[in-house]
Amino acid sequence: MTTNESDMPEDAATSHPETLPQETSDTLSMALETFDVKVDSRAVPELERYCELLWDWNSKLNLTRHTDFDAFVTRDLIDTQHLIDQIPKGARVLDVGSGGGVPGIPAAILRPDLRISLADSVAKKAAALQSIVQTMNLKVAVQPDRAENVLKRKRFDVVTARAVAPAEKMLRWFEQRWDSIGELLLIKGRRWPDEEAAAAEAGLLDHLRVEIIDSWSTCGRDGNSVLVSISRIK
Question: Helix (H, G, I), strand (E, B), or coil: what is residue 51?
Answer without folding.
Answer: helix
